[in-house]
Amino acid sequence: MKIKIAPSILSADRNNLQKEVELIEPHADLVHVDIMDGKFVPPTTFKPEEIKNIHTSLPKDVHLMVDHPLTEGYIDNYLDAGAQSITIHTECKDDILECIKYIKAKGCKAALTVKPDTSLDTILLYLEKLDMVLIMSVNPGYSGQKFIPEVLEKIKQLRKLKPELDIEIDGGINPQTIKEAVQAGANVIVAASAIFDKEDRIAAIRELRASAEQSI
Length: 216
What we know:
This protein has helices spanning 17-24, 48-52, 74-80, 96-105, 121-124, 152-161, 177-184, 193-196, 201-214; strands at residues 4-7, 31-36, 60-65, 83-89, 109-114, 132-136, 166-170, 188-191.
């Protein structure tokens, strides 16, 4: 499957998001947007208008780390901000199936994710309705955490069940861990600090892509 690199703007310069995205745009496949509500995880991140004001040809891949993605309006807010895929957590407090149906009815791709300690079984019930599954390889909330290799078994299991499914991984990705992720079956790779903490963002993306493609 095609490897897709999705730089996460969680580690980008928040005061220069447009410039940051313009820089990586020719070298990336998606732009990953982490949204946190301060309840599901302690931090809060971007406001909808910040994301709406990012103009890019890349699909906006929005990951909602929130308790109530549907009933508190997060899905609507980020659809309006240009999301082309929206991921919610099975651990959220809204009805999962309602969320998936709502996202897809709006013409947006729908994805589910789980925290590292949550069983993959919580996703399998909805698998036929999903466009993508995101496997978290760190606990959600903060950029720069250490990769949790135990989650690779979830990716292997998913890939066996769904050979053509987009399987995304997020957390602790660097030129070494990306190899493990791709070998396990991930094809959509989110990286934050591994790109935006580097002086040369383009070289960082190229290094990640090269490591990934060598592992196919």
